[in-house]
Design a protein that fits this description.
CATH class of the largest domain in chain B: Mainly Beta
Largest interface: A-B, 53 and 33 residues
Strand order of the largest sheet of chain B: 1-2-3
Structural class of chain A: alpha/beta
Shape of chain A: globular
Number of helices of chain B: 0
Structural class of chain B: mainly beta
Strand order of the largest sheet of chain A: 8-9-10-21-20-24
Largest sheet of chain B: 3 strands, antiparallel
Number of strands of chain A: 24
Number of domains of chain B: 2
Shape of chain B: elongated
Order of helices and strands of chain B: EEEEEE
Radius of gyration of chain B: 14 Å
Strand content of chain A: 5-15%
Oligomer: heterodimer
Chain lengths: 896, 89
C-alpha cells in the first residue's frame, strides 16, 4: 500500500472521502473518438508533401494582373489560389479543409524566396527526368523520422529535407519560380541590404550562424488570430460591408494625404479576398455533396451531408452553431497560414471566442458536451496537420518541424474577472483524450483562475505531452502595458493578451460579438507578427568572439572587427560583449527592417489584414500599421544560461580566485579541455566526453570550470550575471527601431536554435564542450548543473522582473513518479503556483522517464506517437533532430 | 488509368491516397496503383477541353480563361469555373 493509499484509508476511517483522481493514469482517460482514432492511424503513416496547385494559381493570376494596384493584385492572386485548391475530405473527418490537397501539405512561396529553386532549376529538372530505379524502389523506400522526407526516392524528390514532392510537379516548380528570379522578397531585400553600411558584417554574422535566420523566411506568425469579423458577419456580410466602404472611401483622402486614398483599394482587395474565401468553403461543400452521392454506408453518408450543410452555410453566412463557428475559425486559420511561410500563427483564446456558440447549442439541446469534445478532438488533428514550408535550416534547425499554433486558456476577461469558460474545460479534456502535438495549450495563470480548472490543467500536464504550459497572466498584462501603453493600450485591452507562437506575448483586444440576442466581448489578436525582428543571436558565441578578438576558430575567419582590448577584468569583458552585441544588432536590424519593409510592400498580408483589428476600420493593411498595436517586433536571444554560466566561471576562476589567466582559460577552451568535439563524436549531449591525449593537461581547469557557480542553484555569485544581463538588454534592445518605427524588445525563447547555435560554438568557460547544445529556453538551468532542487531554480530565475520582457522560458523535466496520483497533481500545481507567485513568467514540463527517451532514440520505430516538450512546443520524438534529442534526454530529471 | 486519376481518389500525401468507395489506402506508384473498374475520371487540367499542346513534362496551354496561360496536366481542376471534361471516345 502506498503512502497515498494509507492516507486515504486513514481519512476514510474518519469519514473524509478524498477527491477521486480520474486522471492518475492514461488508461483512466476516455478513448478518443473512433473517427479520430482512424484519422490518427492514417496520420502516422503520412509524409509531409508539397504540391504546386496553390503556387500555380497564385503565380498565374499575379502575372495576369501586372500593373494593377499591388494590394488588389495580391488579393486576386490569393483568392484564385485558395478557390482553386482541390478539396480533400477523408471519410472519418467531421471538420474539413486543409492547407493543400494533401493532409500534411504545404507549398513553396517563390514570391517570397525563389533563389534556391532558380539556382537549382537544372538539377531539379534532372532529378525529375531521371527514371525511378525500379518499381520496387518506387514504392518501398520510406524516409526516416515520422513524416519527414529526408531523402529522395522513387518518384518523390526530397525538398528542404522534410517534404516530398512528386517528380511530375518539379517542372511546375521550376516554371513558377522563374518569373520571381530577382523579384522575390529575398532577392529584393538582398539587393537593398547591400546599401546598408554594415552589409559585409551582416553577411559574416549570418555565415557564422551568430544569427540563425532572416526575417523574410517566415514573415508572419508569432501572433494571435482574430476571428471576430467572419463570426459576426459571415463572408457575404463582409462583402456587403466592403461594398459600403468602397462607396464611402474611393477617391476620398479624408484629410490623410499619405494613406487616405489607399482605403478604397484596401476595401476592393478585401472584397475579392472574401469572395475567394467563400468560394473555397463552397468547394468543400460541393465535394462533400459528391461524396455523399456515391456513399452507400449510412453513417458516412450522413457525415458528408452534415459537412455539406456546414460548409454551405459558412460559405456565405455568419455561423449559427458551435460546429459552424469552429469550422469557420479553422477556415480563417488555413487562409492566414496559406498567405506566407509561417510559424506561430496562434489560435488564441478559442474557448472564450466560441463560448457563446457552445452555450447556446447546449441550452437549445442541439449538441452535448461529448459531441463538443469530439469536435475538439477532430480540431486537434486538423491543427496538428498544419505544416510550414521553409528552408531546411528554418524548418529543422529552428522549428523542429513544428508550426506553433498555440491555444491559450484562462486569463482575465474585459472586466478583470476570470475569463475561464465551460468550453475551456472541454478543450483540455479533448487534449487529454486526443494527444497530438498541436494545438499546444497554454494556461494564462492568474490568482483568479478557478482551482478546479487549474487542477484539470495540471492533470493534463501530468500526462507527459508537454501541454499545457503555464504562463503568468499578470506578467503578461504588465508587459502589455509597458510595451503598448505608448500606443494607447489600456488595461482592458491588456487583459486580452495571449501567446502568439510558442511563447511570444502578443497584444489583443476585446470586440463585441452580437449573437443570440446578447453581446459577448470576445478576445483576439490586435497586432502583426510579434516576432520577425533580429532572430536568435547566440549569446555564448558573442562571448567567445570577445575572448578571441572577433576571430571564429571554427570557420577560421575574422567575423567581427578586432576590439584589441586588454581583457583585464570581467567588467571589460562584459563591456566588450555589449559593444559586440550592439554592433551585431545594428547590422542585423537594418537588414531585417529592409526585408520586412519589402515584404509589406510587395507581399502584404491579405487575410490577416481583413481579420486583424483595426485594419478594416482604418481601411489599411497590417503591413502599413493597420493593426491596433504595432510595437511588436523583437530581438530574439539564444543560450542565455550557457552565457551566464560562462561569465560566472570567468569571474570565479580568472578574476576572483585568479587560479588561471585568461590566456590559459582560452587555451583550454580552444583545445576543448582535451576532449573530442561533438563534430568528431556525433554526440551533442553535454554529458558525453571522449578524451584525447590532451585530456590530462586540462583535467584540473576542466574540473574547476565544471565546479564554478552555476545558475539555477539560488547562488548569487552566478545569478547576479542574469540580473546584469536582463537589465542591460532591456535598455539595449529598446534603443533600436523596427520598420514600424517602434522600439525592439527582448524575446527569450530558444525554440530549437540552441542545437545549431551550440553546434557552432567552441567549448566555454563553464565546461560546456565544443558543438554541444546550449541550455534551452532562457531560464532553464544548464542540464545537470542544478543541484539544489526546483525551488532554487525558481529563486535564480526571478532575480529580475519578468514583466519587462516579452517572455522568459523555463523547461523542467519530472519523472512521472514525482507527480503520481492526486497528490502528485496537487504537487505539480503547487510547483507552478510557487513559480508564478515569485513572478516567473513561464514554466513547462516534460514528464517522462529519460530511459524511455533513450529507448526511443535507439528504436524510434517503436515510439511513433511519443511526444516531448522541446522549448515552447511539443513535437513527435521521431521528427526532431538528434542534437535536440540529446539535449532533452540530458535535462535534469526531478524524481522527488 | 491510375487510382490517382479517379474522382473517388482522396489525396493523402506524395505516396498514397484513399478510395472514397472502399476506404482503402491506394499507392500512387507501383503495384496496386492501377485503377479499378469503378474508375471515374477526375477533373484535372490534363483532361480539360481547354488544355492544349502538353509537352513531355505535361506542361501545356490553358485556353479556358480570357487570358490564355500555361498550365500543367496533373493540376486539379474540380474547382475551376471553366473546366470541361474532354470527350475521350
Amino acid at each position: 500500500m502506498t503512502n497515498e493509499d494509507k492516507l486515504n484509508e486513514l481519512l476514510k476511517q474518519h469519514g473524509i472521502e478524498m477527491e477521486e483522481d480520474k486522471y492518475s493514469a492514461l488508461e483512466n482517460i476516455p478513448q478518443k473518438a473512433e473517427g479520430c482514432e482512424k484519422l490518427m492511424e492514417i496520420y502516422y503513416t503520412l509524409k509531409n508533401t508539397v504540391d504546386m496547385e496553390y503556387p500555380y494559381w497564385y503565380n498565374r493570376v499575379w502575372q495576369e494582373n501586372d500593373g494593377d494596384i499591388t494590394i488588389v493584385r495580391r488579393a486576386k492572386a490569393m483568392a484564385a489560389a485558395l478557390s482553386h485548391l482541390t478539396p480533400t475530405i477523408q471519410p472519418y473527418e467531421r471538420l474539413v479543409m486543409n492547407k493543400t490537397r494533401n493532409v500534411r501539405g504545404a507549398f513553396p512561396f517563390p514570391w517570397v524566396t525563389a533563389s534556391f529553386f532558380n539556382a537549382q532549376a537544372e538539377a531539379l529538372m534532372a532529378e525529375a527526368d531521371a527514371p525511378a530505379e525500379s518499381e520496387a524502389d518506387a514504392v518501398s523506400i520510406v524516409g526516416d523520422g515520422g513524416g519527414n522526407v529526408t531523402k529522395s526516392y522513387g518518384n518523390i524528390i526530397s525538398i528542404a529535407k522534410k517534404f516530398g514532392m512528386r517528380k511530375e510537379e518539379i517542372p511546375v516548380l521550376v516554371r513558377v519560380s522563374k518569373p520571381w528570379d530577382g523579384n522575390s522578397v529575398e532577392e529584393l531585400s538582398n539587393k537593398y541590404a547591400q546599401y546598408t553600411p554594415d552589409y559585409a558584417l551582416e553577411q559574416n554574422i549570418m555565415e557564422s550562424v551568430l544569427c540563425m535566420f532572416d526575417s523574410y523566411c517566415i514573415p508572419q506568425g508569432r501572433e494571435v488570430m482574430n476571428y471576430y469579423l467572419p463570426l459576426q458577419y459571415g463572408w457575404d456580410g463582409i462583402i456587403e460591408l466592403c461594398n459600403q466602404r468602397i462607396t464611402e472611401t474611393m477617391g476620398e483622402a479624408d484629410s490623410d494625404g499619405i494613406l487616405g486614398m489607399g482605403r478604397g483599394y484596401y476595401y476592393v482587395a478585401m472584397k475579392i479576398l472574401a469572395q475567394g474565401m467563400s468560394k473555397w468553403c463552397q468547394n468543400y461543400a460541393d465535394r462533400a455533396h459528391y461524396l455523399a452521392s456515391i456513399e452507400t454506408d449510412p453513417a458516412f453518408k450522413k457525415n458528408y451531408e452534415d459537412i455539406e450543410a456546414v460548409m454551405s452555410h459558412i460559405a456565405h453566412k455568419a455561423p449559427s452553431t458551435f460546429r459552424q463557428a469552429l469550422q469557420l475559425t479553422l477556415c480563417c486559420h488555413y487562409g492566414v497560414v496559406n498567405e506566407d511561410p509561417q510559424s506561430g500563427q496562434s489560435i488564441g483564446r478559442l474557448g472564450q471566442v466560441l463560448q457563446p456558440f457552445y452555450e447556446k447549442d447546449i441550452a437549445d439541446g442541439i449538441t452535448t458536451e461529448e459531441e463538443v469534445i469530439e469536435l475538439l478532438e477532430f480540431y486537434r488533428i486538423k491543427i496538428t496537420s498544419i505544416e510550414c514550408f521553409a528552408s531546411a535550416g528554418v524548418t529543422g534547425g529552428v522549428l523542429s518541424g513544428n508550426t506553433f499554433n498555440n491555444l491559450s486558456l484562462g486569463g482575465l476577461n474585459r472586466d478583470g474577472l476570470t475569463a475561464v469558460t465551460p468550453l475551456e474545460y472541454l478543450i483540455i479534456e479533448a487534449g487529454m483524450r486526443c494527444r497530438t502535438t498541436q494545438p499546444t495549450l497554454s494556461i494564462l495563470y492568474d490568482e483568479k483562475t478557478p482551482e478546479d480548472f487549474l487542477m484539470k490543467a495540471a492533470s493534463c500536464t501530468k500526462l507527459g505531452m508537454g501541454y499545457p504550459a503555464w504562463m503568468n497572466n499578470q506578467d503578461g498584462i504588465n508587459f502589455m502595458m509597458l510595451n503598448y501603453g505608448p500606443e494607447g493600450m489600456n488595461l482592458q485591452d491588456a487583459r486580452a493578451w495571449c501567446l502568439g507562437g510558442c511563447l511570444e506575448s502578443s497584444p489583443g483586444c476585446f470586440l463585441p460579438l452580437n449573437y443570440n440576442g446578447k453581446t459577448y466581448w470576445i478576445p483576439g489578436g490586435a497586432g502583426p507578427t510579434a516576432g520577425s525582428g533580429v532572430h536568435f543571436v547566440g549569446l555564448p558565441k558573442v562571448l567567445e568572439l570577445v575572448l578571441t578578438n572577433g576571430y571564429d576558430h571554427r570557420m577560421k575567419r575574422q567575423i567581427l572587427p578586432a576590439h584589441n582590448k586588454e581583457l583585464d577584468s570581467l567588467e571589460t569583458i562584459q563591456n566588450e560583449w555589449v559593444n559586440y552585441l550592439k554592433m551585431i544588432i545594428n547590422a542585423l536590424n537594418k537588414v531585417n527592417n529592409l526585408q520586412m519593409d519589402i515584404w509589406r510592400k510587395h507581399c502584404m498580408p491579405i487575410v490577416n489584414s481583413l481579420l486583424k483589428p483595426d485594419c478594416f476600420t482604418k481601411g489599411r493593411d497590417l503591413g502599413m500599421m493597420g493593426g491596433r498595436y504595432n510595437a511588436t517586433i523583437n530581438f530574439e536571444s539564444c543560450g542565455t544560461i550557457t552565457f551566464i554560466n560562462s561569465l560566472a566561471s570567468l569571474y570565479k576562476n580568472v578574476f576572483k580566485d585568479k587560479k588561471y589567466t585568461l590566456e590559459e582559460m582560452l587555451d583550454a577552451m580552444l583545445h576543448n579541455f582535451g576532449f573530442k568535439t561533438s563534430y568528431e563524436t556525433g554526440v551533442f549531449s553535454p554529458d558525453f566526453r571522449e578524451a584525447t591525449d590532451l585530456a590530462g593537461k586540462y583535467e584540473q581547469i576542466f574540473a574547476d570550470c565544471i565546479n564554478a557557480p552555476k545558475f539555477g542553484n539560488a547562488d548569487w555569485e552566478a545569478d547576479q550575471f542574469l540580473k546584469w544581463y536582463e537589465d542591460t538588454m532591456f535598455d539595449l534592445t529598446r534603443s533600436y527601431e523596427s520598420y514600424y518605427g517602434k522600439p525592439l524588445y527582448m524575446c527569450q525563447i530558444s525554440v530549437s536554435t540552441h542545437g545549431p547555435q551550440g553546434f557552432v560554438t567552441l567549448a566555454d568557460a563553464a565546461g560546456r564542450l565544443a558543438g554541444t547544445t546550449y541550455s534551452d529556453g532562457s531560464v532553464s538551468a544548464a542540464a545537470g548543473t542544478d543541484k539544489n532542487g526546483i525551488y532554487a531554480i525558481f529563486q535564480s530565475a526571478t532575480v529580475y522582473d519578468h514583466g519587462t520582457q516579452q517572455n522568459a522560458q523555463m523547461n523542467l523535466k519530472l519523472h512521472p513518479s514525482a507527480v503520481k496520483g492526486i497528490q502528485g497533481t496537487r504537487k505539480l500545481l503547487d510547483i507552478v503556483r510557487s513559480y508564478m507567485r515569485k513572478g516567473g513568467f513561464h514554466v513547462q514540463f516534460n514528464i517522462v522517464d529519460s530511459n524511455t527517451l533513450r529507448a526511443a532514440q535507439a528504436k524510434p520505430e517503436n515510439y511513433r506517437d511519443l511526444m516531448v516538450r522541446v522549448a515552447g512546443f511539443t513535437q513527435y520524438w521521431c521528427e526532431i533532430g538528434k542534437p535536440i534529442q540529446d539535449e532533452v534526454i540530458y535535462r535534469t530529471e526531478y524524481d522527488n | 488509368m491510375k487510382h490517382i486519376d479517379c474522382k473517388n481518389y482522396t489525396y493523402l500525401d506524395c505516396e498514397k491516397g484513399m478510395c472514397a468507395l472502399t476506404k482503402m489506402m491506394l499507392p500512387i506508384d507501383g503495384k496496386g496503383s492501377d485503377a479499378c473498374p469503378k474508375f471515374v475520371m477526375a477533373p484535372k487540367c490534363g483532361c480539360c477541353t481547354h488544355f492544349k499542346d502538353p509537352d513531355s513534362h505535361g506542361l501545356g496551354t490553358c485556353e479556358g480563361f480570357e487570358k490564355p496561360n500555361w498550365a500543367y496536366a496533373s493540376c486539379g481542376a474540380g474547382s475551376c469555373e471553366y473546366f470541361e471534361m474532354r470527350d475521350e471516345r
